[in-house]
Amino acid sequence: MSREEIFKAAQKAINEYNANEAKEVAQRGIAEGIEPMELMNKGFIPGISQVGDRFAQGECFLPELIQSADAMRIATEIINAAIPAEAQKRKGKVVVGTVEGDIHDIGKTIVVSLLKANGFEVYDLGRDIPTEKFIEKAEEIGADIIGSSALLTTTMEGQKKLELALKKAGLKGKYKTMVGGAPVTQRWADRIGADAYAEDAGEAVKKAKQLLGLS
Ligand code: B12
Hints:
Helix 6 (131-141) packs across helix 7. The chain has helices at 3-15, 19-31, 36-56, 62-82, 106-117, 131-141, 157-168, 186-192, 201-211; strands spanning 93-99, 121-129, 145-149, 176-180, 196-197. The chain is of the alpha/beta class. It has a 5-stranded parallel beta sheet, sandwiched between helices. Cobalamin binds at residues 45, 48-49, 51-52, 55-56, 62, 65-66, 69, 96, 101-108, 110-111, 147-149, 151-153, 178-183, 198, 200-201, 204.
């Protein structure tokens, strides 16, 4: 199979809600030497985006969405495990979670893995995380950055709530904030006063380094 065929097969597995196939393609892609993030970005992510589009058009429904998310989770686990860790001194501590009311965590988990692979110490809070939890954890571990993910237009408010809560507690500035998730934009980040926005996991690593003056 050529690289292009593997990317196509990854998209197909997610589009057909096929977890076994997704697992096989992920393993095969890695075994054939495709860079893990390239396999993710050119294969699996376009696949789940296509399913999302079909869901939006009413061409598939929640049960299918759940199955393809499961296939995506399995592929993500394999890919994340294959990301080579940079043998370096710890770069900084990052607390990451998906905001309250939002259970989407595939993208957030990819961001966590890539940050870890690039030498950050990451505390993954999980999903559906109330504002206070982000702050509590950041205080507890002495974080440098708080990253929040939101996939629903309605839950993006959680990112704004976090900024307001930090300000209110006099902690804005103590922690840098970074926001992401499909509906999130630089404009939104500017509007709520977040310190950085990143479109994908690779960009998240770059921005995290910039926030800490490491690049
Ligand atoms: C998979 C999925 C699900 C799965 C989630 C499983 C899981 N464990 O995550 C399930 C089936 C559970 C689900 C449920 C729902 N979903 Co849904 N879902 C999706 C789908 C198809 C893909 C999301 C995804 O994983 N993308 C792949 C990842 C890799 O991309 P990503 O998340 O954007 O992450 C990247 C970047 O954004 C960035 N990033 C992400 N997080 C962070 C954080 C930081 C700090 C940084 C810097 C960067 C960053 O880096 C990531 C890697 O590149 C999207 C469609 C879409 N196009 O987004 C709909 C979508 C988000 N869902 C949608 C909806 C409506 C729902 C439901 C309300 C459906 C329902 N009727 O119940 C529920 C909501 C439940 C809830 N309360 O959260 C809508 C949202 C519409 C809107 N405008 O708000 C979408 C857009 C589908 C659509 N087109 O209608 N969903």
